[in-house]
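User: Run a structure prediction on this.
Assistant: Running it now.
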Amino acid sequence: MTDQGERNLSSVPGLGAGPVMVIGGAEDKVRDKVILSRFAKFAGGEDGHVVVISTASSLGDQATEVYRALFTDLGIGTVTGVRPDDRDEADDPAMTAALRDATGVYLTGGNQSRLTQVVAGTKLGDALFLAHDRGAVLAGTSAGASAMASHMVAFGNAGPTPKNRMVQLSAGLGILSGLVIDQHFGERGRIGRLLALVAQSPSLLGIGIDEDTCAVVFSDQTLHVIGRGAVTIVDGAHVKTDAYRGKGYKPLMVSGAVLHSLPSGYWYDLRGRRLLAAEHALDDEREASE
């Protein structure tokens, strides 16, 4: 495992893939702004250029302006907004030009299916991968977080018990591979559907993120938790289940899934599927709050 200083290098353009911040929604925009401040730091501060993509939001340009004001107040030098409404717009070279020198890209909340159906597989989608590869920080909140992964929740029902047909999976943008990410996790009682997803697709690592909480994924595939709540990780590598026999909307048998609940400051190795550096969690939390 690399140390914190080496991880910070992953946010510098030209020194490898940038960090990916997946946020559970309802991030603090008024008080300490721990998550948004960390994004602004990764994006380069006054030397940075952040592009806000608000396609998922039903609020239109209003969503863009909210984040433009926030990032400007946090010291970002340039903030640009783009909002393609269809795939033709997302394929427009003028739309992708904004990302060429971006040091950070922020995907707003809203409807993740709308976001992926407009952006995935277009020139704008390709530009996201290029920005990430050259070191820009990518962040998504709520729907924007779910869309970051290779697989995402298209829609589903809440509840503590995993059930057949309670959730439907679809393709995400694919920035983070081998994951499925759910948001507003604790607040909306979504543990059941994450267990159901992992039972049905045990090769995927299930990530559930509470509100005002962020999982920061670095290029070495380590994950760091910051924010007010917790990140729930469900590992189904050795799960036993009867999901393949599921009928109707009946409960599923799920046994042997490994569950981690990680509050702010904890680290997790996504590749090795194991907890890291638990003894430094309190020190990391103090740093995240500064």
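The CA atoms of residues 107 and 144 lie 5 Å apart.
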